[in-house]
Each structure stands twice: as structure tokens, then as C-alpha cells.
Amino acid sequence: MKYIPCVMLAICLWACKDKSVIDNQISQKEISFARDSIKSLFGEGCKNMDSMTNCLMISEYTMTAIGGDSLVSKSINDSMAYYFQQTLVNIASYGEDSTNQSYFALTKAELMQKVVQEHDKQSKEMPDMSHNWSVETFVDTVNILSKVIAMQYTESTYLGGAHPNTFTSLLNFDRKTGKTILLKDLIKDEKSFLAIAESEFRKNQELKPEDSFEGYFFENGTYALPLNYAISREGLELFYNPYEVASYAQGPIVFVIPYSVLGNVMDLSLCQ
User: Fold this and answer.
1) Using an 8 Å Cβ cutoff, are 205 and 129 in contact?
2) Strand partners for 146
3) What is the pLDDT of residues 197-253, one digit of tens each?
4) HEC states along 172-232?
5) How far apart (Å, rounded) are the C-alpha atoms in residues 241 and 11?
6) In sequence order, which ranges of 4-107 are alpha helices (DSSP H)?
């Protein structure tokens, strides 16, 4: 019996050591992603899926970062959750002059109810219209590189009207810090970078150097960078959403600038 305390202590020490080893192994694991989908239906018109007349459908196609550095995983997951919150806030504020900032303090369930109320309001104000609203959000990886993970969040909403509206956001996460990498932080020579990007845009759109930007939405006919970009293996991907610089019918404008032409104007340390 006198050896029991020693044995218990040895077991305890072994268990503690083993736990630290396991924790360390988990923290060192490569980051991975788990997919899921959630569909929420609101309204009497949702009962018959073949002939919906007054239905609000919210579909979420999610992707959750698992393992790897906890700061990086948390940064990715928090960012994707915020973008979904932003989608709901924008729809909940649909009938208002500006976005109601107080909506950001609401839970996901509360925000969905606000969207339901907005849908019901439109249905009562315009009873002759078809009131099938759909909100579809999609999260996916764009590129998983040694130093950067590029993610995309896409929302497609139909709230009545001629067609749905689709908008994609691209985010680039530093795999060491979890911070979002901004394009301005990578550019060393803004003027030269802008000239290269414009040249690549013209190639993509089959425009000659002397052609004007008539028909595009550039302010004063002067080329401007898009709101979204992604770091890829081949080069820097620039992404223009519909309506950002061209009509909805033209769809998104996407092209890649090879790193071979960016070496002197951009910091490529994260891209290699």
C-alpha cells in the first residue's frame, strides 16, 4: 500500500506529460476545413416547394477552419461570421435610408427575424408581386499557400426585381499572424502597379492602350483597382464584382497579374 501514492504520482505525471504532447500535436496539425449547409424557410408559401408564392429562404453554405494555429483559424471563422452578419443587416435595413448600426448587436436568430419582418412588410405593401425572397451565402477557399490562405465569401440575394444580386468578397490571411493582408500593404510602387494592372485589365477586356473606358463605370474614365484581390500561386488575382466597373450582364471581371511582372513594384515575400 505504501507504493500506491508513488504509483498514482507517476500516473499523474505521465498523464500530464501525455496531455501536453497531445496538445502540442494538435496545435501543430495542418489547418483543415469542414463544410456544412443550413437552410431556413419562413412563410406560409414555403410549404409547397413546387409552387412557392410567399416564401423567404435563407441558405448558408459554410466552411469552418479547424486545427492549425488557433489565431489563424479564429480570424478566418470570425471574418466569415461577420460577413454573414453583414448580409443579414443589409437586408434587415432594406427599407431604411441607411444601415441601422444597432442591428449589429443582434444575434443571428434576431437578425433573421428582422429579415422576416422586412419580407412580410414588402408582401403587404405590394400584394400583387411574387414574394419569394432568397438569400444564399457561400464560403470557400480560393488558395491555400505556405504563407497565405485566401478565402471567398459570396452572397446571392433575390429580394424582388429583375434579377438576383451577387457579390463576392475575397480575404487573404497571413498564416503566421492570422491578420488580413491588405493590397496596399504589398504595393511598393503604387503608380507603377496601377499602370501594370490597367494594362492587364485592357488585355482581359480586349481593349487597346488608346481605347477609352466608355461603357465602364470608372470615375472620370480613369482606371481604378477593384475592392477584392487574392494571392495565388500564379500571380495576383484581381476581382471586380458586377456593377463595380461594368454592367450586371457582363458578370464579374477576373484576371491574374503574373508575379514575373510585379517583382519591382510589389512585396512578394508572402506570395512565394
Assistant:
1) no
2) none
3) 999 999 999 999 999 999 999 999 999 999 999 999 999 999 999 999 999 989 999
4) EEECCCCCECCHHHHECCHHHHHHHHHHHHHHHHCCCCCCCCCCCCCHHHCCCCCCEEEEC
5) 60
6) 4-28, 70-92
d(CA 111, CA 101): 12
CA dist 186 to 71, 182, 183, 253, 264, Å?
22, 7, 5, 22, 11
- Return left, alpha or beta for 9; rule: phi > 0 is left, psi -120 to 50 is alpha, else beta: alpha
Q: What's the CA gap between 138 and 157, in Å, rounded?
A: 12
**2, exposed or middle or buried, with CB in 10 Å at 0-12, 13-18, 19+?**
exposed
CB-based contact 111:86 (threshold 8 Å):
no
CB atoms within 10 A of CB 34: 10
Residues 152, 172: contact at Cβ < 8 Å? Answer: no
* Cα–Cα distance measured from residue 64 to residue 73, given in angstroms and rounded to the nearest whole number: 8
Mean pLDDT of 74-87: 97
Count of all residues that appear for the chain in the document = 272
Q: Which amino acid is at 100?
A: N
Beta pairing partners, 12: none
pTM: 0.84
User: What distance in Å separates the CA atoms of residue 227 and residue 174, rounded to the nearest whole number?
Assistant: 19
Gap between the Cα atoms of 243 and 252, Å rounded:
8
Host H or E run for residue 32: strand 32-42
